Amino acid sequence: ELGIRIPRPLGHGPSRFIPEKETIQVGKEDATMHTLFAESFATLGRLDNVTLVMVFHPQYLESFLKTQHYLLQMDGPLPLHYRHYIGIMAAARHQCSYLVNLHVNDFLHVGGDPKWLNGLENAPQKLQNLGELNKMLAHRPWLITKEHIEQLLKTEENSWSLAELIHAVVLLTHYHSLASFTFGCGISPEIDCEGGHTFRPPSVSNYCICDITNGYHGVDEIHASPAGSIPVSSTESVCEVEALMEKMKQLQECRDEEEASQEEMATRFEREKRESMFVCSSEDEESAATRDVSRHFEDTSYGYKDFSRHGMHVPTFRAQDYSWEDHGYSLVNRLYPDVGQLLDEKFHIAYNLTYNTMAMHKDVDTSMLRRAIWNYIHCMFGIRYDDYDYGEINQLLDRSFKVYIKTVVCTPEKTTKRMYDSFWRQFKHSEKVHVNLLLVEARMQAELLYALRAITRYMT
After folding, report:
1. Is residue 197 part of a domain?
2. Whose CB has fewer CB within 10 Å in the chain, the N or C terminal residue?
3. Crossing angle of the two packed helices 162-184 and 339-352, in degrees rounded to 10
4. How confident is the model at residue 300 (pLDDT cuts 50, 70, 90)?
């Protein structure tokens, strides 16, 4: 009556992929979760939807919030507004408007110059120089060389110090992988964010044509089977879980009986690496970057390409020559104290996190499956572990799961609800979120390894 437009949320709950009733409801959380919610609220000034989905795994969320808080707000080589601007640059590479919008607000809040938000060309030259590293880290980290590092450290008046560069690299990799989580879990924008609300009144049929054009199809969509997919009978899905457990058992028995030779292991890695190139997202339409987000980075046509395509040969990155534990960790900790420790803890929690359950089964050792997921991601990035039998990956990860993994890790902006629904159909949503945590951390570590190795080579 007063002519005031009242916003209504466009979505239902923190995720477009997970029905609201299956997420943790605020007000019904336990004491541990409540503390985490309070921490998140105190740090971010809001309880964001990433937190509301991550809280399925409180131990991980605690480590994640601690690390993010340290990177953005505690003492460090970079000024606060630079940190948020780098977050914008990194999230924009994957067209993640959700994260871009959050950091635009934070950037302005800490006194950032609004002019920089008109496009990267309006930011200081020092930040513009970071564009090339941002692009390669996000899409083809294996191409980073010590020459790229040298350019950043030696450009006279706009040069970076080593400590500043480490801080920037950790921020870039953090936000590339957080974009993977955001798209992989279908995080919805909050009601006060762009794309999170509509001003149109609810229509009689619960949603109106304007909502459909905005990509929101009403509450029914959440419960409908994914478009174009065939509803799966629960017995079929149960068989899927049983089959996976049986394979794990067989692989364990084979492991105990015989060990493959080093040559055979190397061959299996090369085969898996080659095969990973032929896994591509089924919904392979090009998602054009919106002008709104694409102004924060250069070279919008540059995207993910498999590393051995078109006759390009990139040498395998052997983990025993440069690993996070033996090399990366100490370099980060030396130049940016405490961050190596925080990252190390976060990697460990994600990699070792288990509740010993699989779908409806209890007391299951899932370490073999978690290792297969982690090593498959590193294999897609050309990183090889000598002591791992890559033959296990094909046994444990089926095609639809590989499509999901590769999409979320390499081109997260192309992830769809259909892909999320089509893998591990009998597993709980919390288990699928757990998978996303593994993808996020394995991706971040792979990107970091390439950048840190190049920095080490420059230093030596």
Report:
1. no
2. N
3. 30
4. low
Distance CA 445, CA 174 (A): 9
Joined together, the tokens standing for residue 67 give: 């690390």
pLDDT for res 19: 93
Nearest to 449 by CA among 356, 351, 323, 279: 323
Checking phi first, is residue 306 left (phi over 0); if not, alpha (psi -120 to 50) or beta?
Answer: beta
Task: Please tell me the distance from the alpha carbon of residue 242 to that of residue 248, in angstroms, as a whole number.
Answer: 10
Question: How many CA atoms within 13 Å lie on the side-chain side of 297?
Answer: 31
* Domain membership flag for residue 41: no
383-384/317-318 β-pairing: parallel
Token couple for 129: 């120089």
- Domain assignment present for residue 92? The answer is yes
Is 144 buried (19+), middle (13-18) or exposed (0-12) by CB count in 10 A?
Answer: buried
CA 156 to chain centroid: 34
Number of domains in the chain: 1
Q: What does the pLDDT look like over 188-226, one tens digit per residue?
A: 988 666 665 555 655 544 444 444 344 444 443 333 333
For residue 332, pLDDT beyond 50: yes
Rounded to 5°, angle at Cα 178 from 173 and 184: 130
What range does the domain containing 115 cover?
48-191+239-281+293-459
- Answer yes or no: is pLDDT of 363 > 90: yes
Enumerate the H helices of 140-287 as residue ranges: 146-154, 162-184, 209-213, 220-223, 234-257, 262-277
Running DSSP on this structure, what letter comes out for residue 22?
A: G
Question: pLDDT by residue (tens digit) across 415-433?
Answer: 999 999 999 988 999 999 9
Yes or no: say if 247 and 373 are a contact pair by the CB < 8 Å rule.
no
**Looking at the annotation, which residues are catalytic?**
96
Q: Within its chain, how far is the Cα of 443 from the centroid?
A: 7
Long-range contacts of the stretch 33-38 (C-beta < 8 A, 24+): 33/58, 36/61, 36/62, 36/65
Instruction: Specify whether the CB–CB gap between 377 and 442 falls below 8 A.
Output: yes
- Whether residue 249 lies inside any domain: the answer is yes
